[in-house]
TrEMBL record:
Residues 21-208 form the Reticulon domain. Keywords: Endoplasmic reticulum, Membrane, Transmembrane, Transmembrane helix. The keyword Methyltransferase does not apply. This is Reticulon. GO terms for biological process: brain development; endoplasmic reticulum tubular network formation; neuron differentiation. The keyword Membrane applies. It comes from Nothobranchius furzeri (Turquoise killifish).
Amino acid sequence: MQATADMTKKECCWSNWKGQAIDLLYWRNVKQSGAVFSSVLLLLFSLTQFSVVSVGAYLALAALSATISFRIYKSVLQAVQKTDEGHPFKAYLEMEIALSQDQISKYADKILLCSNTCMKELRRLFLVQDLIDSLKFAVLMWLLTYVGALFNGLTLLILAVVSMFTLPVVYEKHQAQIDQYVGLIRTQVNSVMGKIQAKIPGAKRKEE
């Protein structure tokens, strides 16, 4: 019964996190999404101008300046008003932030599963278990060489963040038209790959 209750609790937590992420990306709360979006973009743009160490140090100094100033302000205010409210961050200092053994095991299992799946997939592609899939992977890597020549890693990360906060909203508003165009592109790609598959010896999939 306890194990079932723990599993139900974990599923609820995961559902809550997933729901919050969806609400964030779909701008259900404009202020919250705007704050997260602008903060992440500001951090990434800062990294394009300064090193990771400098950005981390500046962020830490900014946070320390805010907390130290607030602590001194509250101490002076308590001294003037002769109150005994205690430490202004007491609730946060007493908050439990340590990961439990169950949480560590859960995350470790997920990382292990993901790593094993990726290694098996890479082995399948590089050792050409399926010729068509390996050719698709080769084309993707070839395209990435051009992408890498045009953009660095941080630029791609900035574009990814912008896409995460814009594409879901655009898709939600124009879902029918986008699905129609995606279907046409997919049909064309499948047609081309079918012709290539028919001309290359040994390219037929096993299920065919």
